[in-house]
Design brief:
single chain, Aminopeptidase, 4 helices
């Protein structure tokens, strides 16, 4: 089993993150919408999330020992709807298909929670 490293995402990771849009759109399973419309929404949503100020967001990337990107998580500052307390909200969690089942998503979620 390979090592999984978590690090803060950088602007150099943006193309990788945007490349996950089709996978994210297909995971949404919205058969009442055309696939191209869901993919277009996914691109708009991701670009809007990445445009938020860094002081309001956290974005972490998982990579293996060869620096192959495995996935990422993007979280934003929010307010809990029930308690009205400040909280974080995960807006995007994506893992490449080849890394499924290796604990990548769990590691990314832990980084977002910390």
């Amino acid at each position: 089993m390979s090592t999984i490293r978590i690090r803060a995402a950088t602007i150099e990771d943006r193309d990788f993150m945007l490349s996950q849009a089709a996978r994210l759109a297909s995971a949404a399973a919205l058969p009442w919408h055309a696939e191209r419309d869901v993919l277009s929404f996914q691109h708009r949503y991701m670009n809007a999330a990445f445009a938020r100020p860094e002081t309001e967001t956290a974005c972490f990337l998982a990579e293996d020992e060869r620096s192959e990107r495995l996935g990422y998580v993007h979280a934003e500052a929010s307010t809990d709807f029930v308690t009205l307390e400040p909280c974080g909200y995960v807006t995007i969690l994506a893992v490449v298909e080849a890394a499924e089942g290796r604990g990548v998503a769990a590691r990314l979620m832990q980084a977002a929670e910390d």
